Amino acid sequence: MSFAELASQLAQVGRRCHARGWALGTSGNFSAVASRDPLRLAITTCGVDKGALTAAQIVEIDGDGRAMGGAGTPSAEVSLHLAIVRARQAGAVLHTHSIWSTLLSEGSAAGVAIEDYEMLKGLEGVRTHAHREWLPILENTQDWRAAGPRVESLLAAEPAAHGFLIRRHGLYTWGRDLAAAERHVEILEFLFEVVGRKRGS
Amino acid sequence: MSFAELASQLAQVGRRCHARGWALGTSGNFSAVASRDPLRLAITTCGVDKGALTAAQIVEIDGDGRAMGGAGTPSAEVSLHLAIVRARQAGAVLHTHSIWSTLLSEGSAAGVAIEDYEMLKGLEGVRTHAHREWLPILENTQDWRAAGPRVESLLAAEPAAHGFLIRRHGLYTWGRDLAAAERHVEILEFLFEVVGRKRGS
Amino acid sequence: MSFAELASQLAQVGRRCHARGWALGTSGNFSAVASRDPLRLAITTCGVDKGALTAAQIVEIDGDGRAMGGAGTPSAEVSLHLAIVRARQAGAVLHTHSIWSTLLSEGSAAGVAIEDYEMLKGLEGVRTHAHREWLPILENTQDWRAAGPRVESLLAAEPAAHGFLIRRHGLYTWGRDLAAAERHVEILEFLFEVVGRKRGS
Amino acid sequence: MSFAELASQLAQVGRRCHARGWALGTSGNFSAVASRDPLRLAITTCGVDKGALTAAQIVEIDGDGRAMGGAGTPSAEVSLHLAIVRARQAGAVLHTHSIWSTLLSEGSAAGVAIEDYEMLKGLEGVRTHAHREWLPILENTQDWRAAGPRVESLLAAEPAAHGFLIRRHGLYTWGRDLAAAERHVEILEFLFEVVGRKRGS
Prior knowledge:
4 copies of one chain form a homotetramer. Chain A has 5 helices and 9 strands; from the N terminus they run αββββαβαββαββα. The first copy, chain A, is of the alpha+beta class. The relative contact order of chain A is 0.16. The first copy, chain A, is 33% helix and 24% strand. In chain A, a hairpin with a 2-residue loop joins β1 and β2 (39-44).
């Protein structure tokens, strides 16, 4: 797929997440792998409104997070996208800010366990509801470049996780391509609301 | 109605359920009877995103669940659709995964009772709010072929039920045609949210 | 306005109520005065899906509730519409079934009091938030023709009410024209959710 | 930008707020600065339905709140818009009525504190989640002209606030332009729901 097609699809995914309330305002950032060798990502630029996201607001970056073309600054969380793409062989990485992921990541728990729901089968490789998904929670920071090793060790320590939360911040999830990553957002957001309502929020 | 028209209508129903949050990701499956003798069903294929469901993702199956045409594998829950079509003379069967049906089917209750709501009159044959609808809850499994007899005896034991829940999984409902089945989804999902909020979820 | 225009506008109002979840399935019914002398109402027919409501599903009735033209049976609750049009000089009457109006009309309270909200100013004639709106609750029945006197005395006893609830059933509200009645639905549904959430539902 | 373009954009913002449920019925009012010297605002007229808001329902006012053109009466809360434009050098002021802002402004608290959420970075000038946003709550009134000094001293006393609430009424927020103000609405409404759900509403 060409960069232009990828950028157009990323913009559609972003607008759909905004419509659901998962990327209000300028929140959230979205990327997809444009090439593996050399590594090139299409990624949303910083500070753009997701409700009006267009392909022109997607830039190309290299494996060090440097912009290779397009206008605008790549998202400040570019190091997270690169770490995920490398550790999981992901084709797309989606980061959303929803009410329920924010509520579930309050407090000091190390993660959220979700088990025995049929909906878990929407996660790649999960074949039965008798599955326990553990979504670790990472502490929030404003220096994701420095936090790179922390993200890499979390991804290495939790090889089965389909996503992770950042405390009072939101969800990172991914997939082999953009459709799989968007499906993971839908599945996980559904499960967050179920778990959140069970907790009585 | 031709198979092509039926497939197109099923795709629209699926996208509407997705828009309401009742079939996020690849969850849910939908069928309609294309012919009675011999029995032929139009049914969604496995693993397709309901938000982008198209008529091309609907296949024709026979009374043994074998694909008769179209691309893709029929839903793994095809035996449930066939059992319902036979037991209830249904023209369409809809299976959704919603937040509230998931929450109501938690725990170990044998079913959910809903009574004295005007909205119950949206269910086929119900003429008054002074009605008690009992939706049995079936334990979840990944082997619906083996669970066939369990489903058949549940349908026989509860001849008045307009639907049933599967534990932490979702709703099955049906109707004489696709419009009636979709109306049953809307009515039951409404009532699940009312009952769920009364329980304090 | 011609009957055809009125029917088209009623169909749009119905579809908007369905989109908000206030008239799921076949629930709800909607009318507007086509002429005062002799009295003629445009009103939704019985058992039609509000999500696909069209002008062809609206019939004309006279002051006794008899169909004057169009196909389909007028709503079973036609006597309520006629009583309201007469008692309140209303130009339109809207009846919705929402989650929050259903929850607020549970139990045995004689009505719901809503006061001191700015949003109350959206109700006709209310000039300040320092207003107490009392929405009486009528017991549900399946014989609205026989219940006519009960409805008339309620409307006479509560001359300031902008609407009323039916127990575990829904809301009736009205206005001098269709736009005013639709505004009342939006204002009251908003307030029901506020009051319902305060009660902890 | 011409007045006509500004009016068209304000109408779109209003319809989007209505779609989210933040400006149901005739609630809410919206303005943008058309010129600074002399001061001219484009502002919604009183009593118009936000779901069908059009550019023709936007009027131009001067720095004293007098209509300079267009049909309809400027919003009764025009003095609030002018006070904010002057105190904050805002290019646009948006006032919404949402469920969660209404619930959070119940009781007698002097304001709402929101801290440590990543989403706070959507507010102008906020660079880290380690931020405490204090939204003061103003008592409601029907005489905003007389309340002018009260609004001015609140804005002077809370120079860092990105918005304020009016008791049981709604939110005022603003931005350097209409896009920034709309982003502030989305960010703050998101945070109100998070805080409201944490409180158990």
